[in-house]
Amino acid sequence: MMNLKGLNSEERYSLILKFQKELNQELISFFESTKTNGRDHISRVLIDKIESMIETLNNQGYRFGRIDYGGDINYENSEQWYSSGDTMGKGIILHFHGFSVQASWDNA
Fold first, then answer.
1. Contact between 94 and 103 (Cβ < 8 Å)
2. What pTM was computed for the model?
């Protein structure tokens, strides 16, 4: 688990980018392994995959909780937001959009 508190903005940004890259690599690999199963299957497994990734992160010491959910049968339009801070919407923010994620920081 990374601790971003107390880092300067450049150090924090660098760690967030690396974290985002790792998560995106996992999502890309999963998409590539399931894309031949059809759109219905892909749409069904996307939410489970993201929830599994969050559970794994939480087992590593993070405390991500869902902020918002915008599921869609068209997996490209499915969106989920999680944050790791003591207050909802603070800390590390993960914005999943389809099979990609953007990570950012909101000072908690």
1. yes
2. 0.90
Average pLDDT estimate for 14-39? 95
* Cα(70)–Cα(82) distance, integer angstroms: 12
Secondary structure (3-state) at 46: helix
Q: What is the pLDDT of residue 27?
A: 97
CA angle centred on 17, ends 5 and 62, rounded to 5°: 50
Q: Structure tokens of 51?
A: 């929830």
pLDDT digits (tens, 9 = 90+) for 78-89: 899 999 988 888
Give the C-alpha separation, 51 to 35, whole Å.
19
Residue 38 has, within 13 A of its CA and on its CB side, a CA count of: 2
Residue 72: CB atoms within 10 Å? 12
